[in-house]
Amino acid sequence: MAAAGGVGTGALPRRQQTFMPPIEQLYALRPSALFRAFAGGGFAFWMACFYLLFEYVRPQAIYAPLEVYPYWARTFILLALIGWIFDPKRRFVWNKITTGIFVFLGVIIASIYHAYWPEISRENFMNFFNWVVIYFVLTNTVTTRHRVFILLIIFMLASFKLSQYGAITWASRGFAFADWGLAGPRGFFQNPGELAIQMVVFAPMAFFFALGVRKYVSTWLFYALMLMPVTAAMTIGGTNTRGGQIALAVQLLALLMTTRHRIKALLGVMLAAYIAFSLLPDEQMQRFESMGDDTTSQQRILYWENGIQMIRDHPVLGVGYFNFVPYFNTFYPDDVILGWLRGAELPHNITIQVGTDAGLVGLSVFALLIFWGFTSMRRLKKIADQRGDIFFSRMAVGMNLALLGYVVAGQFVTVAYYPYLWIHLTLCVCMLTAQRLEGSEPTLSARSAAPNLRSTQRPAAAT
């Protein structure tokens, strides 16, 4: 396993090993180095990358021939699991976040058996279980810095594809207001609110990714990378979603409060705020002014108030996994006040969603996972700062701002079982694993120079 700037060992026998390029070449975004790092990753890693590509870029929704087979993402993650099982040098990664996810799975299963409508719970079981499998496969496959960087590149490019489309679309209509806002491709990010949350997660990650590689890339490439957070913010504006825009504002304030360069950050926030208020159409400003009074807000407030009552009445395991809608329709039918609705929707709030699905037990575990996500990145930054690891130090800050944005925006959208949190926790664990292993094992070149270490060191991990 390679340390930063070191050499990787590969998943092949020693005489066939593909040497990893120095990590600095990846930070410089050299295509040849990126290709070598990807090619040397092995079958399980390739399948994990293809999974992320099909989950986020969704070429199956773009190219008609791919639509014939609807299970691309699931197939790739299954192949990655098989590849990991048959890798003789596989890693087994487990930490408290992993424990929390499996405990949460156990609570979900228990809530299904105690649900009012267990058949509805069983129909939706895979909505969460898929993320357990994906988390397990990716965290046990992406265990080196090279692999983490490649995975981040795929995530960035896939999200940038969404953001540049959204920014161009919004600009092409003169930054005008549209009732439906901006929609993403079919899947998790099709709804404007869901697209906005992906941009809320992506923007700080992209910003600090660019800062992390700044010293390795040319000036023009750095400014090209800065288009990622800029277009993400523009897409949030174009979606017309109040939750996403509030989350972005909270992220900017958090950045201002936590950075050491507060004067520069304050000037940047003021400039961003001025541009935002200049671009937001009058109709969107009116939506903020009417928050709490318009019919849509009143309907959501009814979902939240009755959802809280459901949790009070069923504090241990809730009313049942995905039973919020039938329970609401049965016990609160008069509280569906939007004329175009035939029945209740999901609660438009991740706290209410998890609390009604799995009670206070599930909600406590869910909250712990979010807390551990924050603390894991604080730990990553502390260790990275001690080692002079600029890239991981920057990414740790971006990850925590991304998670903060998800939590804030999630109070307005029902996205507890969407990829945002589970992919985020996956990336957190992957980065922590890579950093931990770098500090505990010598590089290949170090072992070659000191043959006597071979008898005491564990075999190197597959890169």
Gross morphology is: globular
What structural class do the secondary elements suggest? mainly alpha
Q: Proportion of β residues?
A: under 5%
Biggest sheet features: none
Arithmetic mean pLDDT: 85
Poorly predicted runs of 5 or more residues: 1-17, 442-463
Total helical elements: 20
Computed over alpha carbons, the radius of gyration is 23 Å
Number of strands: 0
Distance between the amino and carboxyl termini: 6 Å
Share of helix among residues?
55-70%
In short:
The protein is an all-alpha fold and 463 residues long. It is 67% helix and 0% strand.
Notable traits:
463 residues, mainly alpha, 20 helices, disordered N terminus
Describe the protein's architecture and organization.
- The protein is mainly alpha-helical.
- It has a domain at 96-125 and 136-141 and 150-435.
- The chain contains 20 helices and no strands.
- Helix 8 crosses helix 11.
- The model is unreliable at 1-17 and 442-463 (pLDDT under 50).
